[in-house]
Predict the structure.
Amino acid sequence: MKQVVELLRTHAIQPSAQRVAVANYVLVTKEHPTAEQVFHAVTATFPTLSRATVYNTLHLFVKKGLLKQFALTEGVLVFDPHVEPHHHFVDDETGAIVDIPWDRIRVEGADDLPGIDVRDFQVVVRGKRQRRRTTNKAT
């Protein structure tokens, strides 16, 4: 808890009990939760927390650089505590979102687009995981 409080303070965020509760979940999750998922996860242990407080806190964390917000699936915003550059894979079958290390996908020419000052970019890969095949070899 001390680490979360210090992290919030270093990002000029007043560490209220509500903000710390949200941070304790969203800044350590490996998932890419929606605001509703964060609300339900945090209110399980902090039942008096309002939906508006969760939404406002998430947007404050994005503004201060603790989270990134993405629309990786149509009509759904997700929050990502992994703020370093990386790409995403969205599984068509499960909807799961998985991080792809930045250096696993190469994009050429993004910085040289005429008339465009590129601030940021990412690649979103969509598909389904291949099932591992098991082979039964007769000996």
Remarks:
- The longest strand covers residues 68-73.
- Residues 36 and 73 are 15 Å apart (CA to CA).
- The two ends are 57 Å apart (CA to CA).
